[in-house]
């Protein structure tokens, strides 16, 4: 028996990597892989998380890359929203499917252009789908644990140029 829950605080760690540019665009001059840390809240519309919406804030920092030419190290801030649904068994084992949108500034470690050009600041907007599985631990408070795979498309604007790419991640 699990009582009606109003929602959940979320804490997650994840990684994501750019897969390839969209169309004939160039590869963005930012690192292709990031480690992400976020905190957020999911509002359970049905009391158990079968349908929920929420938001999160956090950030990430770049991981090693063999991308050429050498990208600058970067960090970024993310603000996101998501809507998700869960199929939950009587034992509270569940599968999740959701959509997300997120965006925020990306700070490059080195300017890309001449001094004063401010090419060390970019802006990123992304959206996509998440899917995964998890379960509920009967602790006080109740804790859901889950792993979610995400696929999305991002647009990054750096120094007046825009770059669009597909990405994948796990959180």
Architecture overview:
The chain is 0% helix and 66% strand. The chain is elongated, with a radius of gyration of 18 Å. The chain starts with 6 loop residues before the first strand and ends with a strand. By secondary structure, it is an all-beta fold. An eight-stranded antiparallel barrel has the order 1-2-3-4-5-6-7-8.
Q: How are the strands of the biggest sheet laid out side by side?
A: 1-2-3-4-5-6-7-8
Rounded mean pLDDT score:
85
Q: Number of helical segments?
A: 0
Proportion of beta-strand residues: over 45%
Instruction: Give the proportion of residues in helices.
Output: under 10%
Question: Which class best fits the helix and strand makeup?
Answer: mainly beta
How large is the radius of gyration?
18 Å
Low-confidence stretches: none
- Described by the principal axes of the CA atoms, the overall outline is elongated
| Helix and strand run | EEEEEEEE
Question: How many strands appear in the DSSP assignment?
Answer: 8
The first-to-last residue Cα distance is 28 Å
Main sheet overview: 8 strands, antiparallel, barrel
């Amino acid at each position: 028996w699990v009582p009606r829950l109003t929602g959940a605080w979320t804490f997650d760690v994840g990684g994501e990597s750019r897969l390839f540019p969209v169309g004939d665009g160039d590869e963005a001059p930012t690192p292709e892989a990031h480690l992400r840390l976020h905190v957020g809240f999911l509002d359970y519309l049905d009391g158990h998380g079968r349908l929920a919406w929420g938001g999160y804030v956090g950030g990430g920092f770049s991981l090693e890359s063999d991308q050429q030419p050498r990208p600058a190290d970067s960090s970024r801030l993310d603000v996101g929203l998501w809507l998700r649904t869960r199929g939950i068994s009587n034992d509270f084992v569940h599968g999740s499917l959701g959509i997300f949108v997120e965006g925020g500034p990306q700070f490059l470690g080195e300017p890309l252009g001449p001094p004063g050009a401010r090419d060390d600041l970019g802006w990123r907007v992304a959206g996509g789908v998440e899917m995964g599985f998890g379960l509920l631990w009967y602790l006080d408070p109740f804790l859901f644990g889950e792993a979610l795979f995400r696929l999305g498309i991002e647009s990054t604007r750096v120094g007046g140029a825009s770059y669009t790419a597909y990405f994948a991640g796990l959180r």
